[in-house]
Amino acid sequence: MGGHDAGTQHQFTGIAKYFNSYTITGRRNCVLATYASIAAIVLFFKLKPKKQKAVTAS
Amino acid sequence: MILSFFDQFMSPTWLGVPLIALALTLPWIMYPTPSSRWLNNRLLTLQGWFINRFTQQLLLPLNLPGHKWALIFTSLMIFLITLNLLGLLPYTFTPTTQLSLNMGLALPLWLATVIIGLRNQPTAALGHLLPEGTPTLLIPVLIIIETISLFIRPLALGVRLTANLTAGHLLIQLIATAVFVLLPLMPAVAILTATVLFLLTLLEVAVAMIQAYVFVLLLSLYLQENI
């Protein structure tokens, strides 16, 4: 099912060297990056200050 | 007192004393104690042969550090297969129909494999969450899916065993009731239903053995990934 290469034949350059889906470290970095992004989004919405509506004079 | 079809799954008590501990230790008395003789009697030889063969087959795909799990896997297999088969006797309580027991077996063992993987080879353990060769756009989606499937594993392990055994016992009781009710009314149909009941009981014997094996096999597979 799909070509199984050892991942060692790939010569990645740039960001693909660290984040790719072929080498085991590349896959690990992708996983960690995804978890970090999800944590960042959750933290962002938790720590966002709640806006209070200004009271208008009636 | 109105009996419902689910009374067979109630944890047994006698005069208020819970008997679940007795039900769980029953497999212990079913097996002969190993003796210190070189050549044992037929039963012991057969038991030893079965245990050795099973352990050998199960540990085949595991590397050397995984062989530490031989005792727990084999004893778990024998425990489950005995409980399942004993439960097929009429009016016998089957502890493996209780989700609490199956989750109590599945969750700690699964968690152990995950922790071993993260501790001994964290890169490989985390890298397994992304299948090799995934297209770039699909990477985050697949990581989320694989994480969900990782956490579903203990639930699936426990519920698979519970559901299979509960459904089987329930079916047997329902069809047996149908035979009993139909016998004075339509004897021919009752005999047909009795044949169905016989075939179902044979199926349940197979399911009892297969489900115990599948439980242990899946745990060994999860261990393979992580050890």
From TrEMBL, chain A:
GO terms for cellular component: mitochondrial membrane. InterPro entries: ATPMK. It comes from the Eukaryota. This is Up-regulated during skeletal muscle growth protein 5. It is found in: Mitochondrion membrane. It comes from Denticeps clupeoides (denticle herring). It holds the Pfam family ATP_synth_reg. Keywords: Membrane, Mitochondrion, Transmembrane, Transmembrane helix. It is a single-pass membrane protein. The chain crosses the membrane at residues 26-45. The lineage of its organism: Eukaryota, Metazoa, Chordata, Craniata, Vertebrata. The keyword Metal-binding does not apply.
From TrEMBL, chain B:
The keyword Lipid biosynthesis does not apply. Its main location: mitochondrion. The chain crosses the membrane at residues 12-31, 69-89, 101-118, 138-159, 171-199, 205-223. CDD domains: ATP-synt_Fo_a_6. It is found in: Mitochondrion inner membrane. PANTHER family: ATP SYNTHASE SUBUNIT A. NCBIfam families: ATP_synt_6_or_A. Belongs to the ATPase A chain family. This is ATP synthase subunit a. It comes from Denticeps clupeoides. The gene is ATP6.
